[in-house]
Amino acid sequence: MPNDGPVKDQDVTKAWRATHDQASAAKRLRIFAALAWIVAIAGEVTGIVLLYMHTFDHGHLALLVGLLVGIAIFAVAGSLLWKAANKQDPASKSDTFKFFVQNQLGAIVTLIAFVPLIVLIFMDKDMDPKNKKVAGGVGVVLAAVATLIGVSYNPPSVEQYTQDMNKCAAQIRASEPTTACSPEVAAQAQDIARDTTDVSDATKDAAHPAGQDVVYWIAPEQGAKTSTTPHVFHLCEAVSPLRGKTVNHGSVTTAYAENASRITKQIQMEQKQCGFSSRN
After folding, report:
1. Are 211 and 6 in contact (CB under 8 A)?
2. Phi and psi, residue 168, nearest 5°
């Protein structure tokens, strides 16, 4: 029988962590963002090679401008995808360097994709001066616009999501208007609030009159942070489905973070196995 203390009046969600689905979505978005940035940088490399081949000395201005526009399109696309990924799985402000790089990577990559090519355009002594002025001006404008789009002006953070989720879960449990429930935290807060209440109700007994926010689940495989497939969490370690397994325990929130996101359907059976009083 678990020996953890009774639940106190506190936020049920504790620190926010991306769910398995959110982390997977963020990973996909970052892959697509990286591919877009690779295309943008490939366009820059192409432009540099053509400059060294003197392709633009006496013409082909449309080709050079087209390359610059293409670089801008893919740089912006990558930045928007990267920002969407950060909304799903943001960085923590506690790691200042990572927080800055992760949120401003779009602007950084955009500058990398533009600056060397623009510098070489203005430094090219063989290019027609008029074409140089036009291409360089277009490049500067596109680089500035794409970089500004790549900047995250109010980036999301784990700390902000934690605050929002705590408020959201409290509003749900109090049956208040869910004004704090942003799309990124609402579903998880609702599930956690519901399951925390169910677990607290199921674990009430003489020693724990308020119940507990402690559940048990199969640990992620090979020391991973999250399981690759969703697991069920249980009322104590002694239940039959966990026998012979490597087991983790913690709050409902911690279970969700490790992809143990389904409460057991055998609550009455587990109450008996764990030594808790049966539900009325």
Report:
1. yes
2. -65, -50
Distance CA 65, CA 100 (A): 32
- Digit-coded pLDDT (tens) for 217-270: 888 877 777 777 778 889 888 888 888 888 888 888 778 777 787 888 888 888
Residue 126 burial (CB count, 10 A): 10
**DSSP calls for 10-63:** S-SS-S----HHHHHHHHHHHHHHHHHHHHHHHHHHHHHHHHHTTTTSSS-HHH
Rounded Cα distance, 218 and 234, in Å = 9
Quick check: helix, strand or coil at residue 189? helix
Report whether 117 contacts 139 (CB < 8 A). Answer: yes
Global model pTM greater than 0.90: no
